[in-house]
Amino acid sequence: MTTRGDDDPAAGHARTLLRTATRYSGSRCAALCLVSIAATGAGLLLPAVLGRALDLLLAHAPATRWVLCCAGLVLLLGLLDALQTVLTGTVDARTTAWLRRRLTGHVLGVGPRAADRFGSGDLVARLVGNAAEAGTTPAARAALVAALAGPVGGVVALGLIDWWLAAVFLAGAPVLALLLRAVSRDTSESAARYQRAQGRIAAALAEAVEGVRTVRAAGTEGRETARVLRPLPDLSRAGHRMWRVQGRAAARAVAVAPLLQLAVVAVAGVLLTRGRLSVGEVLAASRYAVLATGVGVLVGRLAGLARARAAARRLGEVEAEPATPFGARRLPDGPGRLELRGVTARRGGRAVLDEVDLDVPGGTTLAVVGRSGAGKSLLAALAGRLADPDAGEVLLDGVPLRELTHDDLRGAVGYAFARPALLGGTVEKAIGLGLPSPSPGRIREAARTALADDFVRRLPKEYDTAVADAPRSGGESQRLGLARAFAHGGRLLILDDALSSLDTVTERHITDALFGDGPGTTRLLVAHRGATAACADAVAWLDGGRVRAVGRHEELWRLAEYRAVFGEEGAGSADPGDSDAPPVLDTQGGNGEGHDGMNGRTRPVAPAGEGTAS
After folding, report:
1. N or C: lower Cβ tally within 10 Å for the chain?
2. DSSP string, 165-184
3. Angle CA(480)–CA(542)–CA(578) in degrees, nearest 5?
């Protein structure tokens, strides 16, 4: 997408969105424009026909045909108005639906980065409210053409009756033009403020709803309500400003338009006394003066278009966030070897992971442990390319993840999370999410492996039960998420704290099944319990954004600092200065002993208190 050089990217993306949306409903927009212009044309014909009929009636001449023409035009105007209403609603609905589909797909393509930047509540407000407002743009533009045609046609009609009438009206036209320009500018500014305040309220409300149990437990409902509604004064001020802008415009129109109409009628009366106009032409001139000063319609159209453009700009801000690009390389056959080479990832201006090197042989299990904030979940996200590093690269079987096609990458990597989102409608579809053609046998086998089959069979419709109608605990939700990961298969399985809500016995059964899976799957496990880490082939100990050491859990356990990662779990069970403790592997380089482990650049780590490598 291209943008103008003097504009910010969001404005350029907003224009592109609106152009594409207009093309999407191009035939209907064209039909709406034609119907609106036809209605305007009929409205312009009616005063002339009325004036002609009046002149014939005053002259006692036959006027039946002209009266019937007047009736026909009135009926035509009614039909065109109904058709215009239907087309406007259809175009608005189609455009809104297209914008929502486009932006929803883009947000999902951007991934977690979109929610991090805008917040989930604000994103929902943009995709729901702002998309609906922006969706009115094509119809508003088509209607604006007709709204402009009315005044222009009225001035032309006045000129056709007598050029003096047009000259009188045009003398005051600059005042109307300045009025319309001010309305468009001020409405755009206040509408943008209004929509930003709406987004802040939506974001705060989403946070409050997500944490409703915490709010109830703390008894802070009133305080949280006040926090959610804190932007309400800004919303009110912006809304009142919009109404003041339109109110002032309407007041000025009421002051200026009647003066112009009276001036036209006065000149028409003078021309009538001089015999240059008939009574019917005076009537027509008075009606054309009203059409020519149709500022009220224009003010409404311009205000609506300004609000729609402000909403489109908020959608453009989302569209300007680049989606994750994928490469064209296919994944070769391989055991699922995972490599992180010099990986650095920054969040909030600091390096959460700093030059991390890891080598996980295919078919093995690596547990990642560390204190809160050490970067465990970020490392898990980078390993499956839910996020990209700021420096370095991540490889799967020798291929950088950035260079893989979308289908190859997602087919090779399976995920399970601490709080899985169970999408798909039914329990069976939630477990089979992402599979091209999930078989019932595969779904049930995965559920049995995750120890979820028993409680699923107790549901009213078993695997066909709607997820929303399936009462379940946090641990049962995690088991369904694990079942989805097991059903996915692939050569790399990443469990990001996916066992945290399970009881000890259930966790033990699942880890036995998980680690006994055979050499076909590489497993990366974010662990918080020592018992889970002890089941892995090796443990990567994250500390201060770097890999402090890689080794067997029982080897690392001899270090007091490592034991402290697990709290009081055996914190004093080993002597940090025990000379019989086996060496622990440090992955940050050095010239010491080599080791055939998960990272080629290793050396023994000194016990705590005797100086460890950074």
Report:
1. C
2. HHHHHHHHHHHHHHHHHHHH
3. 115
Integer-rounded Cα Rg, in Å, for the chain is: 35
**How far apart are the C-alpha atoms of 284 and 53, rounded to whole Å?**
11
How is the beta sheet containing 399-400 ordered, strand by strand? 350-360, 338-347, 391-396, 399-400
Q: How confident is the model at residue 179 (pLDDT cuts 50, 70, 90)?
A: low
Task: Give the confidence band of 2 by pLDDT, cuts at 50, 70, 90.
Answer: very low
pLDDT tops 70 at residue 518: no
Rounded distance, CA 293 to CA 459, Å?
A: 68
The per-residue b/e assignment along 17-35, b for 16 or more CB within 10 angstroms, e otherwise, is bbeebbebbeebbebbbeb
pLDDT for position 305: 81
- The encoded tokens of residue 456 equal 């699923």
Residues with Cβ within 8 Å of residue 331, at least 6 apart in sequence: 396, 397, 399, 404, 408, 409, 412
pLDDT at 574 over 60: no
Strand runs (DSSP E) across 537-602, as ranges?
538-543, 546-551, 584-586
In angstroms, rounded to a whole number, what is the distance separating the alpha carbons of residues 353 and 374? Answer: 8
Tally Cβ neighbours within 10 Å of residue 230: 13
d(CA 396, CA 408): 11
Task: Tell me how far the alpha carbon of residue 278 is from its chain's centroid.
Answer: 62
For 20, residues 6+ apart whose C-beta sits below 8 A from its C-beta are 102
Say which range, 86-100, 113-127, 224-238, 573-587, has the weakest mean pLDDT: 573-587
DSSP string covering 259-298: HHHHHHHHHHHHHHHTTSS-HHHHHHHHHHHHHHT-HHHH
**Identity of the highest mean pLDDT range in 67-76, 100-109, 153-162, 465-474:** 67-76
User: What would the mean pLDDT of 426-454 be, rounded to a whole number?
Assistant: 83
**Residue 273 one-letter amino acid:** T
* Strand, coil or helix: 354: strand
Strand (E) or helix (H) holding 209: helix 163-210
* DSSP state for residue 404 in the 8-state scheme: B
Least confident of 59-73, 176-190, 251-265: 176-190
- The DSSP bridge pattern shows strands 603-605 and 350-360 to be unpaired
Residue 570 pLDDT exceeds 70: no
CB-based contacts of 582, cutoff 8 Å, min separation 6: 555, 558
Of 379, 171, 146, whose CA–CA distance to 264 is shortest? 171
Which residue in this structure is represented by tokens 């802070």? 220
The edge-to-edge listing of strands for the beta sheet with 584-586 is 413-417, 492-496, 522-526, 365-370, 538-543, 546-551, 584-586, 603-605
